[in-house]
Amino acid sequence: MSNITLHRLDSGFDRWDALLDLILASFAYMNGRINPPSSALALTSETLKAKALREIAYVALDGEQLVGCIFCRPEAESLYVGKLAVLPAAQGKGIGKRLLGLAETTARELGLKALRLETRIELVDNHATFATWGFRKTAENRHAGFDRTTSIEMRKAIA
Fold it and tell me: Is residue 107 over pLDDT 60?
């Protein structure tokens, strides 16, 4: 993981199957741990491409290998961060933090004051990781049809 480069996705990107594989591999540890299942499981190469062109998306490359991605969607007061994914073999090397750094830069450029994300209630390791990166829990949410909290919202104020 010596030479990681970050690139914004655009219409010239053509590795949608590989990007989908990256997301599914990164989110696989959630299978059977969270209910309802991850929305990542419903993605296809086509819906992923549409999402990337509708949102602001970046990939991390180690040489030619896709090792990470992040999808960002501007909201009224914050930049929503979704599908932050790093290949399991590449985790713990700062790739996720670098991708979030790009999200912060994007938010500043758009005049937004915070990053916002949601993470499942069961994924306490994710809560802790995001907290070390400056995110704070701001809400508890539930998916449609559930009478319990299924996710938490976290925000990070940016200067």
Answer: yes
Give the C-alpha separation, 153 to 80, whole Å. Answer: 10
Distance in angstroms (rounded) separating the CA atoms of residues 82 and 73: 8
Phi then psi for residue 150, to 5 deg, are -115, -20
The single-letter code of the amino acid at 132 is: T
Q: What stretches of the chain show up as alpha helix (H) in DSSP?
A: 16-27, 45-54, 95-109, 124-132
Angle at 119 between CA 118 and CA 121, to 5 degrees: 125
**37, 53, 125, 128, 148 from 27: Cα distances, Å:** 10, 22, 13, 17, 22
pTM: 0.94
